[in-house]
Automatic annotation (TrEMBL):
Signal peptide: none annotated. Residues 3-95 form the VWFA domain. The lineage of its organism: Bacteria, Pseudomonadati, Pseudomonadota, Betaproteobacteria, Neisseriales. This is VWFA domain-containing protein. InterPro entries: VWF_A, vWFA_dom_sf.
């Protein structure tokens, strides 16, 4: 699967996931196309239209600064963390990490450190 096919598949999969969210769930989106940035602040799963609108804006462009995106994701989710609940970060990409953290070993080390 190449180019827009991967992106279309990603958007479709996220739509299915978003439609399963409950109001107590929160979704946040950060982008790493070119540089890391916040696309959607923590938003209730009850506001599916807002979450889906953010996913519809996804575009494949630029380099993949996955490490910076992950750092931003961990920082942003600290504000919406459910202390006694299950907190997840979902990483989706249409390409390879090619800026900053770019190897499997670096990624594993980063996530392990953040988890603690």
């Amino acid at each position: 699967m190449y180019g827009s096919d991967r992106l279309d598949s990603l958007k479709h999969s996220l739509k299915l996931l978003v439609n399963k969210l409950r109001p107590l769930n929160k979704a946040s989106i950060v982008s790493y196309a070119g540089s890391a940035g916040v696309v959607l602040e923590p938003t209730s799963g009850g506001n599916k239209a807002k979450i889906l609108a953010a996913t519809d804006k996804f575009e494949a462009r630029g380099s993949t600064a996955g490490g910076e995106e992950l750092k931003l994701a961990y920082k942003m989710t600290e504000h919406s963390k459910i202390n006694s609940g299950i907190n997840r970060k979902l990483l989706v990409t249409d390409g390879d990490f090619n800026v900053g953290i770019s190897s499997d070993e670096e990624l594993k080390a980063f996530v392990t450190t953040e988890k603690e």
